[in-house]
Amino acid sequence: MDMGIRNKGALVAASSKGIGFAVAQGLAAEGVRVALCARNEGELKNAAEPLRARTGSTVFFKATDLTHGDQVEALVRATQS
C-alpha cells in the first residue's frame, strides 16, 4: 500500500518490540525515516538492524526514558540533526 508518506520522518516511542515495533516496521516499509526509542539500548539495536535490512529505510535509535524531560529533549534534538 502506498500511503504517500515516503521520505517523511517519524519518531516512534516504545518501539524496540511489540506494538511500537510493529508501527515502526509499517512506517519503514512505506519508506519513512524512522527514529526508534525505548529505555533499553540493546533491545533497540536488535530491533533497528533487521528493520534497516528488511526495509532499506533509514532507522535511527536512541535509548530514552520518556519520564525524564531532559532525555526527551535530547532525543528530539538528535532526530533533527
Please render the helix and strand layout as text.
Blueprint (H helix, E strand, L loop, with lengths): L8 E5 L4 H12 L3 E6 L2 H15 L3 E5 L5 H12 L1
Parallel strand pairs: 1-2, 2-3
Explain the overall architecture.
The model has no long low-confidence stretch (mean pLDDT 96). With 81 residues, the protein is an alpha/beta fold. The protein has three helices and three strands. 48% of the residues lie in helices and 20% in strands. Helix 1 (18-29) runs parallel beside helix 2. It has helices at residues 18-29, 41-55, 69-80; strands spanning 9-13, 33-38, 59-63. A three-stranded parallel beta sheet has the order 1-2-3, with helices on both faces.
What distinguishing features does this structure have?
single chain; 81 residues; alpha/beta; three-stranded parallel sheet; 3 strands
How many angstroms does the end-to-end distance come to? 29 Å
* Percentage of residues in strands: 15-25%
- Give helix and strand order, one letter per element, not per position: EHEHEH
State mean pLDDT (0 to 100 scale). 96
Low-confidence stretches: none
Q: Structural class from helices and strands?
A: alpha/beta
| Number of DSSP-assigned strands | 3
**What is the strand arrangement across the widest sheet?**
1-2-3
Shape: globular
Approximate helicity band: 40-55%
How many distinct helices? 3
Largest sheet: 3 strands, parallel
Radius of gyration: 12 Å
